[in-house]
Amino acid sequence: MPVVKIGLITTLDTNIGDDFIRFGICNLLRDLFKNDQVSFVYVNKHKPYTVYPMWHPVHLRNVANHIPVIRNRAINAIENQFSKIGFSLFDNCDLIVQCGAPVFWPNCSKNEWVKPLWHEIVGRLYKRIPVLNLAAGSCYPWERQYQAPGSSEDLQYISSILSYCRLTTVRDRLARSICNFFGNEVPLIPCSAFLAAHGRKADLKESGYILINFMAGGGHFDWGQDIDAGQWENTVNILITNLGKRHKLAFLCHDEKEVFLAKKIASGLPVFYPKTLMEYFDCVSHAKFGICNRMHASVGMAGMGISSVAVCTDTRLLMVSELGLPVHYVKDVDADMLTEEVETILKSLQQEKERLLVLQSATLDMYKSAVRKALSYEVDC
To answer: Is 114:24 a contact under the CB 8 Å cutoff?
Structure first.
């Protein structure tokens, strides 16, 4: 059986949302290459030099890091010199894939993987090895979306990575408009995390939990928008009181900080903190609805047919809206409004489940069609 080796630029051991994105892409690629043996090479973009084997001389940069005074100059010299000799883990791959996540955000050109992964490796290999940028998203302050795509440095960086990729797909309409700014017409397809559940479906029993994913201030960052974190916490407290009269509630947490906050807000409610995707799917399968500050909590549940309402601080909301789910900027909501919206949606959960699962199937087909076309050689369906 032929072996297809695929290099993945991803995030490892950071957040389960990143696992959703990567797992969805792996499901897609296994489906596309189902007549082949697929082998994945995972590289954590936050530790970009792990793309080189341990024997590679570029790792002398770790020694140079301990040299005072000339440290930065020595590290730069080592990186510039030894990255040119190749032999990265991606050099013998058949395909390289950037796995989702925000790709466009303020000062995105200053991230730690720009030079070592995009310019030094992808920029060297893209004419020989196809590169796909799948489920690329935007992450700009909700109140300042008009500032995208950003500084001249960001413009140069975004232009470069778009030129390296044989295919870019985006997961939200702002990301699409950024690509259009550079003359790139790209497919808008729901986030690959929507494909992570891979056939697993929720029960949606009336006795199921409404899961609350809570973050301080409603999201990862305030973005200088003067968000009142105390007001959002108060809103959630009232929401818990309102919904708790008629429904079972529990917290769904993605990290230890969220566990701490959940116990602080409502110590009497169950707190679920799944550490793996399988644990996550097992936990969520007994839910009937979600109220989420993390967008991949909404997308992950949607992949099992569970509807939710998403509240956040930035344009990651647009990713959830592509699933036809309600989204709100945190400063625009109050407890009564959310209570009414949740109760309304709860009346049509089965219809929503069917709609989401039909959309999931269509999403898989859209990705398969786009990738087949981009690779320009026959891929078995």
So the answer is: no
Q: Are 108 and 157 in contact (CB under 8 A)?
A: yes
pLDDT of residue 334: 97
150: pLDDT confidence band, cut at 50, 70 and 90?
Answer: confident
In the chain, what is the greatest distance between 2 CA atoms, to the nearest angstrom? 66
Buried b / exposed e over 143-160, threshold 16 CB at 10 Å, is beeeebbbeeebeebbeb
Any idea what the Cα angle at residue 106 is, between residues 100 and 109, rounded to 5°? 70
Encoding tokens for residue 269? 């409610």
Burial 265-285, CB ≥16 within 10 A → b, else e: bbeebebbbbeebeebbebbb
Three-state SS sequence of 327-366: EEEHHHCCHHHHHHHHHHHHCCHHHHHHHHHHHHHHHHHH
Say if residue 258 is exposed, middle or buried (CB neighbours under 10 Å; 0-12, 13-18, 19+). Answer: buried
Q: Do 27 and 197 form a contact (C-beta atoms < 8 A)?
A: no
| Residue 40 dihedral angles phi and psi, to the nearest 5° | -105, 140
- The answer to whether 218 and 312 have CB atoms below 8 angstroms apart is yes
Q: Which residue intervals of 60-136 are DSSP H helices?
A: 60-64, 71-82, 123-125
Q: With a cut of 70, say whether residue 30 has pLDDT above it.
A: yes
Going by DSSP bridges, is the β-strand pair 167-170/131-138 parallel, antiparallel, or unpaired?
parallel
Distance between CA 247 and CA 227 in Å, rounded? 29
Spatial CA neighbour of 191 closest among 101, 266, 109: 101
> Strand locations in the chain, DSSP E?
3-10, 37-44, 95-99, 102-104, 131-138, 167-170, 209-213, 248-252, 271-272, 287-292, 308-312, 327-329
Rounded to an integer, what distance in angstroms lies between the CA atom of residue 52 and that of residue 43? 9
H-only helix segments in 33-151: 60-64, 71-82, 123-125
Number of other residues whose CB lies within 10 A of the CB of residue 74: 17
Query: Is there a contact between 368 and 381 (Cβ–Cβ < 8 Å)?
Result: yes
Decide: 171 and 322 in contact? Cβ < 8 Å: yes
Q: Which domains does the chain have, with CATH numbers?
A: 3-52+88-195+360-375 (3.40.50), 209-347 (3.40.50.2000)
Structure tokens at 19: 């696992």
For residue 172, the model assigns a pLDDT of 98
